[in-house]
Predict the 3D structure of the following.
Amino acid sequence: MKHISTQFCLLLLTLVLPVAVQAQRIFDQQDPLPQQYFENRYLGNPALAGADTGLSLSMGYRKAWKETDGAPVSFALTGDYQVCRTLGVGLTVFNDQAGPLKQTRVAMSYAYHTSLNEDNTEFLHIGASVSLDNKRAEHVKPGTPEAKALEGYEGYKNAMGLDLGIAYTNGALTLQAAMPNVTRTLKNIDEKEPRGQSTFAVTASYKFGTRSYKISSIEPLISFRPMLNSNSVVDAGARVSFARNMVNVFGLYHSNKAVTGGVGFQFKNSIQVQASYTNQRSGLDAYGGNFGLGIKVRLFS
């Protein structure tokens, strides 16, 4: 029974991918916040809302290392709660700014978690988020490069969005597929975007435990992100935890010629703090890379 359930889950994840390829017209942050790779996976997949017991509150912040006009700044607040073993809910507030472009997004998530075996060690997670988006452009001086790039661009206010996600977890292996802003894709309201966007994401990671006190676990990860009107991006790296998961370091190489590295700390299995740095990808060296900070607090677990 366990073998059949696992095969069914993997088949379902495979069937999601051809559908996700059609999601080609979304507005989303170009690069995920570093926290969503390891520390706060709900940030990138609504299926993982309430996947862990109790209440999780997280904050993610990213800013250009250099103080440059128009440099991207992103900020996210999330909260997710496991109502019962099969039900999770979540809330995300996200703000993104890059030059004259601004986006504010509020999303509410619902996730269904079902066990695939009698030991409750394998789970299938299916989730959706309903969002309210506000995207706008600040006034720029006529004749500037920014004004030319924004010709005919009006943005939109209070547009509804729908995100879909699915995941499989067994304590060590995590497989994910996420499709953001499906509703806007079908309505095709983004006729012109001044920058590229991610269309969907598929991620796989495996956590190897050890019997050593010095090295608690090693978790390699790989992610695939097709981009609209641009080359797809592959993220590959790993997180290594030390001293019973109290300290960790992680690194990721992105195929758009960027590298992310960071360090994290965990206190009494309830507070996590993560700091990271990403060198700027090709073509945007003037910003000098991005600094990221993430804080996660778990309550009632």
